[in-house]
Amino acid sequence: MRLTHEELGKLRERFSDASARIDKLSEYIEIKGDKYKSHYAVILKWVRDDEEKRQKESKVEGSSFDTDEFFELALKRSYNK
Q1: Hey, how many other C-beta atoms are within 10 angstroms of the C-beta on 11?
Q2: Handedness of CA 33, 34, 38, 40 (dihedral sign)
Q3: Counting Cβ atoms within 10 Å, is residue 51 exposed (0-12), middle (13-18) or buried (19+)?
Q4: pLDDT of 18-66, one tens digit each?
Q5: How far apart are CA 70 and CA 81, in angstroms?
Q6: Residue 10 class from Cβ within 10 Å (0-12 exposed, 13-18 middle, 19+ buried)?
Q7: Where are the domains of the chain?
Q8: In 3-38, where does DSSP find H-type helix?
Q9: Minimal CA–CA distance to 10: which of 29, 38, 32?
């Protein structure tokens, strides 16, 4: 594992599931055979990617339209004909 003691400490301070994140990276490397310069950077990137994905999904789930606004626009259009 290419984590320094300092990086390991930072991960443990920042994430309660740091061990699981490290294990996930280890498994990924074993399966894919990928080599990374910084395992610490990969874990942080995955965290950022996961957060961006969650934000996009919550925007889609939270998407809605105002029915009052919809009907108001429809009425305006019907009067303008």
Answers
A1: 20
A2: negative
A3: exposed
A4: 999 999 999 999 999 888 899 999 999 999 999 999 888 887 665 566 6
A5: 17
A6: middle
A7: 5-80
A8: 5-14, 18-32
A9: 38
Contacts with 25 (C-beta within 8 Å, 6 or more apart), sequence order: 39, 42, 43, 46
pTM of the predicted protein model: 0.67
Read off the amino acid at residue 40: Y
Q: CB of 12 within 8 A of CB of 18? A: yes
Asked whether the beta carbons of 28 and 42 are under 8 A apart, the reply is: no
* 43: its two tokens: 């874990």
Cβ partners under 8 Å of residue 30, min gap 6? none
